Amino acid sequence: MTILITGSAGFVGSKIVEFFRESDKDITLIGIDNLSRRGSEYNLPLLKELNCHFYCGDIRNKEDIDELPKVDWIIDCAANPSVLAGLNGGTLPLINNNLVGSVYLLEKCKRDAAGFIMLSTSRVYSINALNNISLNTTTDTFAINPDQDFQIGFSVDGVAENFSTEAPVSLYGATKLASEILALEYHYTFGFPVWINRCGVIAGPGQFGKIDQGIFSFWVYQYLLNKPLSYIGFGGTGLQARDLFHPYDVFTMIQKQMYEPIEASPKVLNIGGGSNNTYSLAQLDAFCKEHISKTKTINSVLENRGFDIPLYITDYSKATSIWGWKPSIGKEEILHQILAYASDNIKHIERLS
Question: pTM of the full predicted structure?
């Protein structure tokens, strides 16, 4: 079997390569990445060690995709994953990467009769609908109000697949939602397998954490580098919360879809940490104060940003009921892994900051 992983030098892509190699020494792994993300070049030695045939190319260029060998599966991990992407003159690069690139990959699947697994995002869900959820406030987090009139696709377990995707969802979310629709149309028209996984926040060791993507790693790194941090919006107290899960649990879902396909199952699934794997910024900060520095001061910005939401929790119950999937690595273990990696690689992290 030959598997192509796009974005293979990025955080999630390189981890998927690693987990595939650990699970099967005989498969052929091919990676493509344009190395545009600063720091991704540091993963190239790892890809070589894992016997992944790496191509420095861009999925936005049809010629780069056409030159790749024939494959049996494409795992699409390539994206500009920032909800703020496209706001400051970068609209076309965002669309080309997240949407046009998907078209070229789907065309390759059609030619090769290959399966397609897309890592999509929770950002396809309506920002207005998410902001209309009734929440309770505790001392350190927002929480779902169990007594509200629940919207379609929402419950005490979080956001399900039938939650509203009505605009606005951000330009980033729109490109991913459009890619989902195209992938499904290619599946129904040409018959090759397609699976779409709408992911919550993916976090773990080796992530290039930034304020608009990889917030859990970013917070730990800022602590270790003694750089400033701020609670932004929602009163400036850090109550906004997200669920998180490990890239290994992304991989286990991909494995099931490739090796144990359930053809009658939905093609679009939510996967994420769920209610048990949710941290607010204030809770994340408490972890960092306990394990790194008790004295760090966090700044406060009261005003909300345009695409911010107070709470997102993945309802992955459909993935559990159909595929038997649930996250296996807990939130505190993920943070400890991030901290251990960062402590061992602080000079490297400092160069990328």
Answer: 0.95
